[in-house]
UniProtKB/TrEMBL annotation:
Pfam families with a match to the protein in the record: DoxX (PF07681)
Signal peptide (from-to): 1-23
One GO CC term on file: plasma membrane
The organism's taxonomic lineage, starting at the top: Bacteria, Bacillati, Actinomycetota, Actinomycetes, Kitasatosporales
InterPro entries: DoxX, DoxX-like_oxidoreductase
The protein, known as: RpiR family transcriptional regulator
Length: 187
């Protein structure tokens, strides 16, 4: 039996690419690296798109991306890492969804792709070229996959649902204010 096969090499490449991109995006949020805005600037952005409190939301998103991405790249705690990254990307996709699918229009294509890749890795596992394999899969048990995905799914649904309600109320308030202003102008 060989040490690794095509599947293991493919999973390694997918983990390194997906995990590396996620880790870099998380580092932008947490530390301001790679042209990012750090917790302060990202927190302000998060507030502006309905995630409150902004700084706590930026920290959670940054940790999901940086932590989940790093663990995915290493192939360590793969179910939890993939689920955390997927949850973070679902939150990002919610912000971009009103702009349609394609990224060039500000859509959710990029976040969805990263989230689906992270979910796929959580389900498939890291392969033999991973720390999970080297450690005997102590952080990558079969029961951990549905548990991590379900827990992340519930938490993400609550956070994104709360954000979406907040944004809807804000938009309704802005429309009402615009209507009131028009009423005043028309007398």
């Amino acid at each position: 039996m060989t040490f690794c096969n095509r599947r293991d090499v493919g999973l390694l490449l997918l983990r390194l690419g997906t995990g590396g991109v996620l880790a870099a995006h998380g580092a932008q949020k947490l530390f301001g690296w790679f042209g990012g805005h750090g917790l302060e600037g990202t927190g302000q952005f998060m507030e502006s798109v309905g995630y409150k409190p902004g700084k706590a939301s930026a920290t959670a998103a940054g940790l999901a991306e940086a932590g989940g991405g790093t663990l995915l790249a290493l192939g360590l705690a793969t179910p939890a890492a993939g689920a955390a990254a997927a949850g973070g990307m679902a939150g990002a996709a919610a912000v971009h969804a009103p702009n349609g699918f394609f990224n060039m229009e500000g859509g959710y294509e990029y976040a969805a792709t990263l989230g689906l890749a992270a979910t796929g890795l959580a389900i498939t596992g890291p392969g033999r070229l991973s720390l999970d394999h080297a450690l005997g899969h102590v952080f990558d048990r079969g029961w951990m996959v549905p548990t991590a995905l379900a827990a992340t799914g519930v938490l993400t649904a609550v956070v994104v649902g709360t954000r979406n309600r907040r944004v809807r109320r804000r938009e309704e308030g802005e429309q009402a204010a615009l209507f009131d202003e028009q009423e005043l102008l028309l007398g």
